[in-house]
Write a structure and sequence with these properties.
- There is one protein chain.
- This protein has 171 residues and is mostly helical.
- 66% of the residues lie in helices and 0% in strands.
């Protein structure tokens, strides 16, 4: 670290608890099941989408106002109808919704590693993590997660749900 050499966190299970790894796994969880509120909220608040707490509140408020058990995902479809959301926040949600729905509809065409690459590219997550203190380490962790997915895919066909379970077992 003192020599500023990028590295992967490989000792123990700490790698899978790194914020950049958790963000991408949360995205895969939502891609696998969009009705999971906690992973969706995590993705929306993460540097992948970067909505504010207020935006998340208004989405949840809209969702729960319609039905107490209605998933946050449903409010995401109607976010343009939430009068409290305007400008940049509305744009972030619209951009995410368009990208997410496209990836959701095409996810069977892509491997898990390819989906991860698309998420990183769309969100410019690589640029974000590189801008952090120790950015090269965070970027190396993002690349390592994609490489782990590729390695597992090379041994057997892998559905994103299988990869999520694989990673969670390693946590």
């Amino acid at each position: 670290r003192n020599l500023h050499i990028p590295y992967y966190v490989v000792s123990g299970r700490g790698f899978y608890r790194q914020p950049e790894v958790r963000d991408l796994i949360s995205f895969l969880e939502v891609l696998e099941n969009p009705h999971l509120d906690i992973p969706l909220a995590a993705v929306l608040r993460s540097p992948l989408v970067r909505v504010t707490d207020d935006t998340l509140f208004w989405l949840a408020h809209r969702s729960r106002a319609q039905a107490p058990r209605k998933p946050l995902y449903e409010a995401l479809y109607q976010s343009e109808k939430i009068s409290q959301l305007r400008g940049e926040e509305s744009g972030k949600l619209e951009s995410f919704r368009i990208f997410f729905l496209k990836l959701l509809n095409e996810k069977e065409k892509w491997s898990t590693s390819e989906c991860l690459e698309r998420v990183v590219e769309w969100s410019r997550y690589d640029r974000y993590v590189l801008g952090l203190p120790q950015g090269k380490r965070h970027f190396a962790n993002v690349r390592k997660l994609i490489e782990i997915a590729r390695e597992v895919e090379s041994r057997e066909p892998l559905h994103s749900g299988d990869f999520i379970r694989y990673v969670k077992n390693l946590e």
